[in-house]
Amino acid sequence: MITRSTGRLAVCFIAVAAVRIAASETPLLEPVSAFDRITDERARSAALFVEAAKVITSPRCMNCHPSTREVTQGDDLHPHVPYVSAGRYGAGAPALPCRACHGSSNTTTLADSIRSIPGSPGWALAPASMAWQGKSVREICEQIQDPARNGGKSLDKLRQHMAADPVVAWGFQPGDGRIPAPGSQVELAALIDAWIATGAQCPQR
Ligand code: HEC
Ligand code: HEC
């Protein structure tokens, strides 16, 4: 017999299970169309960047855009183990380049502790002027579109980098044992496109 209280208990279990499933899934990105309701174009532009910043501020991107020249790892942005020097060009010191360990694609290991070694073409630390860790979304928004700090990129080049760079692509397929950046590279590019088309405005903070 199903009493009132067992019924309630069942509902409770289902609710807990639903929350668990929701928590374990990667949060998705809102599509560009979700921002149509914001009629003010400047406000819409800033809101589009805030959405794209869910990717930009994810640990997968942040680890290569540290505030110091120290590479970080994991979801808690801890220092890279072993210590590696970024070297002059970000690709490591001559004696220990990044490519000594990071190949052109992810390599699955048989270890439980580190299930894969990340890899993609062009694996290197972002230059100092492109440091993002510890900055607000507004600060990143201003810096990312400043050619003096973004490697001389026009807005169109910036868009192409987001849409097609292999290291950005890696963020969405980061290998076993790592949580991907939210959404997809196609969705990120669409948000960046729409942000540029509306004047590349930055949020208040
Ligand atoms: C393996 C290290 C690495 C990872 C991971 C990484 N980046 Fe970068 N990023 C770089 C390097 C190196 C550059 C400089 C390349 C250049 O200017 O062409 C760069 C530059 C950029 C730029 C150019 C503008 C600027 O001011 O930073 C953007 C935009 C960018 N990355 C976005 C991303 C996003 C989005 C992610 C995550 C999905 C990401 N990056 C993850 C290494 C990385
Ligand atoms: C001695 C081997 C080795 C060298 C050299 C090396 N790495 Fe790594 N790196 C690893 C391993 C292994 C991992 C995975 C660690 C883990 O998942 O706990 C890793 C993880 C990372 C991550 C973290 C990815 C994430 O989002 O969690 C970044 C970023 C990174 N390395 C960048 C670099 C850069 C940039 C260089 C060169 C300056 C470099 N590494 C040199 C072995 C190395």
What global shape is seen?
A: globular
Residue windows where pLDDT falls under 50 for at least 5 positions: 9-24
Radius of gyration over C-alpha positions, nearest whole angstrom: 20 Å
* SSE class: mainly alpha
Count of individual domains: 1
Number of helices: 7
Query: Count the strands?
Result: 6
How large is the share of residues in beta strands? 5-15%
Summed over residues and divided by their number, the pLDDT gives a mean of 90
Q: How far from one another are the termini?
A: 57 Å
The hetero molecules present are: heme C
Topology order in helix (H) and strand (E) letters: HHHEEEEEEHHHH
Strand order of the largest sheet: 1-2
| Percent of residues in helices | 25-40%
Q: What about the largest sheet?
A: 2 strands, antiparallel
Question: Could you characterize the architecture of this molecule?
Answer:
- The structure is a single chain.
- By secondary structure, the chain is mainly alpha-helical.
- The protein has one domain.
- About 40% of the residues lie in helices and about 5% in strands.
- The chain has seven helices and six strands.
- It has helices spanning about 5-25, 40-55, 60, 135-145, 155-165, 165-170, 185-195; strands spanning about 70-75, 80, 90-95, 95, 105-110, 115.
- The strands form three sheets. The protein has a two-stranded antiparallel ribbon with strand order 1-2.
- A hairpin with a 4-residue loop joins strand 1 and strand 2.
- The radius of gyration is 20 Å and the shape is globular.
- It starts with a helix and ends in an 8-residue tail after the last helix.
- Mean pLDDT is about 90; it is low at about 10-25.
- The structure holds heme C (2 copies).
- One heme C binds next to helix 2, helix 3, helix 4, helix 5 and helix 6.
